[in-house]
Hints:
By secondary structure, the protein is mostly helical. Helix content is 91%, strand content 0%. The chain has five helices and no strands. The chain has helices at 2-41, 43-73, 76-104, 109-164, 167-174. Helix 1 (2-41) packs antiparallel against helix 2, helix 1 packs antiparallel against helix 4 (109-164) and helix 2 packs parallel to helix 4 (109-164). The longest helix is centred in the C-terminal third of the chain and has 56 residues, at 109-164.
Amino acid sequence: MVYNLLYLNVYYDYLHKMTYKNIYWYFCILIFVLGQPLLFIDFNTGASIFLGMLAPAIMSYINIQLIERLSKEKGNLMAFGFNMMQFIVKSIFLCSLTYLGVKIIKLDFRIFVPLLCLTWFVFHLIEAFFTNSLIKKSIINSVKNELWYKCNFNNIMLKTLIICFNYQEIRSIFNYEIPQF
């Protein structure tokens, strides 16, 4: 069981540190490479890609950085509360970007709004999986620490019993073989 917990801990460390943050970096670089030339060729398309895809991705990346920091410093409950509050903040951000894109910049709402909502939704799901992996990692670490303390406590108790009693008395009390130290 301890081996399985250690394996799961390594697996969640890999997912936590590599996969989620790399998704953000690759997506932002890809959108920047695609959006920059389109900005000069067709302003509406380039602005739709930048404002509708890059802005929510950057906002979401900042959010996962804050969630990770809160989870490490304040615990999972504080990170969970922040994540719930951030859902409201991101909804206001989504409405503000929609107003900015459609009313002020005059982007085509039939292209801009679906891009913005789809990007926001996908990165909100990635945030949820990221937060879930943080919580699972924390639970695995706490169970691993608890098992270590129990094993350490049991070894201390066993050594104390061996010191206080002789080997035959302990064997008769517990009815099993005690290892020699």
